[in-house]
Amino acid sequence: METNVKAIELRDLWRRYKDDGDERARERLVLAYSPLVKYVAGRMGSGLPAHVEDADLISYGLLGLISAIERYEPAREIKFETFAIARIKGSIIDELRSLDWVPRSVRAKAREIEQANSKLEHRLQRAPTDQEMSDELGMEVEAFQESLTRISKSSVIALDELWTVSDASGDQVSLLDTIQDPNAIDPATEMDASEMKDRLADSIARLPEREKLVVALYYYENLTLREIGEVLGVTESRVSQLHTKAVLRLKSRLQQEPDQASSDDS
Predict the structure, then answer these.
(1) Looking at the structure, do residues 148 and 109 belong to the same domain, yes or no?
(2) Could you give the CA distance from residue 93 to residue 125 in angstroms, rounded to a whole number?
(3) Where in the sequence is the domain holding 53, given as residue range(s)?
(4) d(Cα 84, Cα 61) in Å, to the nearest integer?
(5) Residue 240 domain-assigned (yes or no)
(6) Considering the domain boundaries, does residue 164 fall inside one?
């Protein structure tokens, strides 16, 4: 019963804000949905260095929430929570990047690993092992895995970032934000989104089993890295490495031209 009452109140707030321009209703919407910011900031903060304060992440995320409330169209067939989470994440990521706190050496190593993975996948026609990656990079396996750990602790890359495109204003928005009104479908956009989904699904399917499982548990089952470690019987640090490897693999594959990716699979 309480949920129904809350839903009715939210619908009334949306109507008052969108139809009447009621700023007080806007403020109440921000308060009502503020737990989303804490949820997103908490999940993102668990993989960031200790000096990044949760309060700062929440502050950055609130800007994304406000933007989501201002841009959201209740008539569209998409839940506000889904729409808002993408913008909250984007706002936090943009602010962290603007602070440029990630060491250049770590960024360079991430790019190097992506390039090595792409090269080896093309040559081997499968996902390379840690040993093969280490040999290609000219380092010991332990050093390679330590690099993955450093990247995971100082980077905000996530699978969600693979689903971003630029809108007309140049802002980076989630593909979820581009869902068209049922009465105004853009066939070109629909085709691009469908192709992107197909390529991502295919890339995930070709991940090594453990990396595929980590992706499924983290993004679909919403387990934390510690909980995934308990499921797999490994340390949280090892799960972090597996997650980072999976995202770097997917990123390198999706950055290829579609025709190149197809030829690599043949």
Answers:
(1) yes
(2) 33
(3) 2-100
(4) 10
(5) yes
(6) no
Longest dimension (CA), the chain: 64
**Tokens 């502050």 correspond to what residue?**
59
- DSSP characters over 190-224: HHHHHHHHHHHHHHHHTS-HHHHHHHIIIIIS---
Of 4-18, 121-135, 236-250, the least confident: 4-18
R_g over Cα of the chain: 20
Q: Say whether pLDDT at 115 is over 80.
A: yes
pLDDT of residue 70: 92
Q: Measure the CA–CA gap between 200 and 148, rounded to whole angstroms.
A: 22
Is pTM, for the whole model, over 0.70?
A: no
Question: What three-state secondary structure class fits 174?
Answer: strand
Nearest of 253, 242, 250 to residue 211 by alpha carbon: 242
- Residue reference for tokens 């330590």: 146
pLDDT for the residue numbered 131:
93
Per-residue pLDDT band at 139 (split at 50, 70, 90): very high
Q: Taking a C-beta distance cutoff of 8 angstroms, is the pair 127, 121 a contact?
A: yes
Single-letter residue type at 67: S
Question: Of 89, 130, 96, whose CA–CA distance to 113 is shortest?
Answer: 130
Query: Same structural domain for residues 115 and 202?
Result: yes
Q: How many CA atoms lie within 13 A of 105 on its CB side?
A: 2
Is the confidence at residue 103, as pLDDT, over 90?
Answer: no
Report how far residue 241's alpha carbon sits from residue 126's, in angstroms, rounded to the nearest whole number. Answer: 19
Could you tell me the two tokens for 192? Answer: 């691009």
- Express the helix, strand and coil content of the chain in percent, nearest 5 each: 75, 0, 25
Residue 220 lies inside a defined structural domain of this protein: yes
- In whole angstroms, what is the distance from residue 87 CA to residue 93 CA? 10
At residue 119, the 3 state secondary structure works out as: helix
The Cα–Cα gap between 4 and 235 comes to 42
